[in-house]
Protein 1
Amino acid sequence: MIIWLNGTHGVGKTTTAKLVQELIPGSRVFDAEKVGEMLMDVHPGLPETDNFQHWPPWRPLVVETARHILDYTGGTLIMPMTVLVEAYWREISDGFAAYDIPVRHFLLHTDTKTLRERIMGDTVMGPSGFRLAYLVRYDKAFRGWLGAEAGVIDTTALTPSEVGTVIAGAIGVL
C-alpha cells in the first residue's frame, strides 16, 4: 500500500510521514522529490521549468520507483509529496492502479493564515519564498479537485503527532 501525503509546501508532510512510519510496522518513507532531484542532475538537457513535476518523465519514474521499492521490501510506502496539478495526480494514481497498488491519498490542510505563520516561523528551513509562492496554487487546487479527491485532514489545531495518529487510524492500524 501507498499512503500519499499531499498538501502545500510547509504544511508538515515530511514531519508527519516520519511519525506515521513509527506507527505502521513495516513501513518506509519514500520522498518522490528524490526522483525530481535525480532528474535535475540530468540538466542541462531538460527544458527549463519552475517545478520538476512538469517534466514528463517525473511522474512515471515516481510510479516505477515506488513499485520497485514495494516489490523489494513489501510493506507500506509513505510518500510525502505535493501534487497540485490534477492531470499529474491522475497519471500517478492510474500508474499505481495499473500495478494493483492501493493508494490512500490524504491531504494535510490548514487555513492560509496559519500556513503563512508556519512557513515564516520554520526554525529548520527558515522563511521560504518558494513555499509562499505556492499558497495561491494550492488554494485553487484545494477548492477545485484536490479537496474532493483526497481525505482531508485539517491540521490547524493538531500537532504533527496527532495528524499521524489520525492517518494510522484511518488505515486501520490504530
Protein 2
Amino acid sequence: MTNKEIQMQRMWQYFVDATVEIIDQKGIENVTIREIATKAGYNSATIYNYFQEVSHLIFFAALKYLNKYIKELPEQMEKGDNSLDKYLLSWESFCKHSFEEPEIYYAIFLANLGEKPEELLKYYYNVYQSDLFGDVTEDIKTLIAEYNLSTRSRNALDKSVQEGFLTKETVAVINERTVLIWQGMLITILNNRRHLNAEEATNKTMQHIKEIVNNYRLAK
C-alpha cells in the first residue's frame, strides 16, 4: 500500500469512526455531514474529498454494528444438514438481527446510495474488508459482504441447485419473493405499521420464507 493510500485509509477511518460515535450518541437518523465534520475535527468540504454522499459514511458506519450477526452466523449455519437448511438458518439469523436494529440494516441493504454505488462501494470494501470481516470462511464472507441483498440471497441458493434441492428455474422466483418479504417486514417495522417485536417479526417472516422454499423444494 502506498503512502497516499495509507493516508486515504486513515482519513476514511476518522470519518467513519466519527459517524459511529454520532449513531451511538444521537441515533442514525441524526447523522449529518456537519456533525461528522465537527466530531472528526475537519470541515465539511474535507469529507467530500473522500466520500461523495453522507449515505456512504452511514453505510460504512452501520457495518460496524454487524458484529453480533457476524459472530452468530457461522454457528447457526453449522446446525444445517445441507445447503438448503443452511440457507434458511442464515435467513433466520439475518431476520433476527435486522429486526432488532432495523435502521442499521436499512442503511446497509435498502437506503439510497446514489447513482451506481457498486463500483465506489467495492473500492471501499477493498480497504475495509480485513477490519470488518476478520477470519471467516468465504461462504460466510459472501453472505456478510454482499451489500446487494438479491445477489447475497441468490449466492446462497445456488448451492442448493448443485445439491439437487432446487432447479435453476425456481431459484430466481424464490430469491425474489424471499427478499421482498424481508423488505416488506423491515419497512413495516420502521414505519410503525405493525407493533411487532424482533422475535415476532422474525417468526412471521420465516414462516413465509419456509413456505416458499418448501413449495419449490424437490423431493429426494
Protein 3
Amino acid sequence: MEKKDILGHFRIEGEFTSVEAYGSGHINHTFLAKTKEQKKYILQGINSTIFRDTDALMENIAGVTGFLKKEIIRQGGDPDRETLTVIPTKDGKLYFTDPDHNKWRVYPFIEGASAFDAVKSAEDFYQTGLAFGRFQSMLADYPAEKLHETIPDFHNTKKRYEDFEKAVAEDVCHRASSVAEEIAFVRARKEEMPLLSDMQKRGELPLRVTHNDTKLNNIMFDDMTHEAVCVIDLDTVMPGLSMHDFGDAIRFGANTAAEDETDLSKVSLSLELFEVYVKGFLKGCDGRLTKTEIEMLPMGAKMMTLECGMRFLADYLQGDIYFKTARDTHNLDRSRTQFALVLDMEKKWDRMCEICRRWEK
C-alpha cells in the first residue's frame, strides 16, 4: 500500500502532501508525514520479527502513555508534548495491518524538539539522566506487573549467561579457542550475574516500569532551551529494575571510547560523566527510588555492560547472526570494549559507590 493510503486508516484530519523516510533508527521503518494544514505525524512500520506480539506491544505503550498524560497534567505540564500520543485507527485499534500483514502505527510529531545520536556535552548527559529519572518517578505507581514482556528475558543476565555458555559449547564457527581469554573473563564473573534478579525475587528491589533502551537518541530536546522534553521509543517498555535503565545509560554514555573501539587503552569510565548522570537521574526520580536501589546503581552499570559484552561475544561465536557488523571481528571488538569498561568500573568501584551516596541526599 502507498503510505498515504495507510495513513488514511487512522483518525487524522487533513490532506497529506508528503511522506518521507525519517530518523536513524535500525528497528522500525519510520516516516515523517505532513499535511496541507501544516500538521506533522510520525508513521512507523513495526518490526514484527523482533516484536512478534503487536497487541502486547501496543497495549504496553498505550497503557504507559495514558498514565503519563494524567501525571503530566497533574504536575502542570503539557501532555501533548511531554509524552507520545498513540493515534488510533478509524475502527478504534492501536495499529493498522495492511494486506501484506505489515503493522503500522501513528504518533503526532513533537514540534520544536530534536533528538541527537551522540552526547556532545555533560549537560546533554545530565538532561538525559533527568528525563529517564522523571520517567521512573512518574511511573512509580504504575502496576509494572501488568505490562507484557514483549522481549522475554531481555535483561535476565543469568539467562544471557546460559545462552553464552551454549554458544561456547556449540562453537559452530570454531572461534572459541581464539577467544579463551574473553570467555574466562565472563566466567570469572558468573556468580554476580543473578544478584539483581535474586534481590528482586526476595523483595529487596521493587519491580519497576523500565524503558530498556536509555540512550541519548531516545530523548527529545527542546530546540530553544535544549532541555529534555520527552522520552520516546517505548517499544521495549517492560517490567524491570531501575538499575537496568540506569546501567544501560552509563554503559552507553559514560564510556570514553566508541562501543567498537579497537584501541582498548582509550576505554574507561568517565567518573565526571558518571556523576553528571547520577545527579540528573536521582533528581528526576525525585525520591521515588529506595535506598537499596540507589546503593545498587553501580552494580546496574556493571551488569548491563557485562551483559552487553557477553551478547556481543556470543554472537561472534555463532557467526554474527544478530548484531549487524561492518568487519569480520566487529562483534569481538565490541565485546572487548565492554569488558574493558567493566574492568575499569571494578577499579573505580569505591568512587562510583561514593558518588551515588553523595547524590542520594
Protein 4
Amino acid sequence: MRLPALWGRDKDDPFGALHREVEKVFDDFTKTWPSVGALTGRFLMPNIDVHETDKGLEVTAEVPGVDEKDVEVTLVDNLLTIRGEKKSERKEGEEGRMVSERSYGAFQRSFTLPYEVDPNKVEARVEKGVLKISLPKSAESKKKTRKIAIKTAK
C-alpha cells in the first residue's frame, strides 16, 4: 500500500525515508515470485466495473489472455459468479526464457446483485480481453422501484 504523495517528499523526513526503504524491501522480495499477480489481485482476481442503467446492470471484467471457452458466468438467486482459468502457453522443452512475470491459474469473483434480474435475459460475451455481462432487471424489480420526492425544508 502506497502512502499519499505528500509523505516523504522532504529528504530529511525520517518516516518518508523509512517508508521508501520498507517498500523497496518488499518490491525486491516479491520480484522473484512467479505468481505475484495472485497476491496483488492484478489478474487472478479480475478487476470489474458495474454500471446501472434504467434497464439493469452492466458488468465488465478484465480477462486478458483468456479464451471465451475458459470463462464461466453463473447466476444463483442474486449471486453472480465469474470464474475461469488463464492457461500457461509454455511448451515442454522450451528454452531461452529469462524472465516471466505473467500470471497463470484459476480465478473467481462473486458478488451479490442489489436486486433481482431476469435470469433468462442475461447475456455475456468476451471481446478483446473484456468480459461484458448484461443483467436486465426482472419485471418484479421494475415494479418495486419507486422514485421518492424530496421536500425542501422550511
